[in-house]
Amino acid sequence: MKKEEIQHFIDCARRTAAAGLLSCSSGNLSLRCIGDKDSSGCAMLSATGSWLEELQEDQIALCRICDGEVLNGITPTMEAGFHLGIMRRRPEVGCVLHFQSPYATVVACMKDKPKDFNVTLEGPLYVGREVPTVPFLPPGSPELAAAVTEALAEHDIALMSNHGQVACGPDFRETFRRAVFFEMACRIIVLSRGNCTTIR
Ligand SMILES: [Zn+2]
After folding, report:
1. From CA 58, how far away is CA 199, in angstroms rounded?
2. Could you tell me where the DSSP H helices lie in 117-171?
3. Domain 3-191, what fold?
4. What are the extents of the domains in the chain?
5. Cα-to-centroid distance, 51 and ligand 1 (Å)
6. Is the C or the N end of the chain the one with fewer CB within 10 Å?
7. How many A from CA of 113 to the centre of ligand 1?
8. Which residues pair with 99 in a beta bridge?
9. How far does residue 38's CA lie from ligand 1's centre (Å)?
10. How do the pLDDT tens digits run along the chain, 200 residues long?
């Protein structure tokens, strides 16, 4: 891992936390390494139990994407399975973000989930026309990793039932924007009690 990559990872973690998207240690982040020969085919992941708002250099796990092997002795987030699964499946994905942002998590717990999140123009622009829902499966399980990876094979964001949201993109900026605008759509839907119009 290059020094700049480590600093960028820490900046991204802090930025996510500063946006109010996290509940304590619930969020996790991964970035594909772009760098040197030591880290090609690898990704950096926030460590298990880490809080993104106060993430330190020694809480960044370096993992091989093809098999999940930990290369620096730091245990990654328990959700490493889907972070790496998505990157394995989609070579263009450079960032995965997962957290329990307040309103997306409310929607993730609804009995009847909304079908259409296109309440403002940012929906179709940044979130995508459809948002798949992953059923509730034990956190950290291979079943959850497989279901999330499958859901994101052709989408950039998914709701995880009774759990939260997960977003991916080519880099942090794009991924963060998707997650923030999805959270905004969920906020509008929740605060209007579903009584909102959508853009066709
Ligand atoms: Zn989780």
Report:
1. 45
2. 122, 142-151
3. L-fuculose-1-phosphate Aldolase (3.40.225)
4. 3-191
5. 13
6. C
7. 19
8. 165
9. 29
10. 788 999 999 999 999 999 988 887 789 999 999 866 666 799 999 999 999 999 999 999 999 999 999 999 999 999 999 999 999 999 999 999 999 999 999 999 999 988 889 988 888 888 887 899 999 999 999 999 999 999 999 999 999 999 999 999 999 999 999 999 999 999 999 999 988 888 87
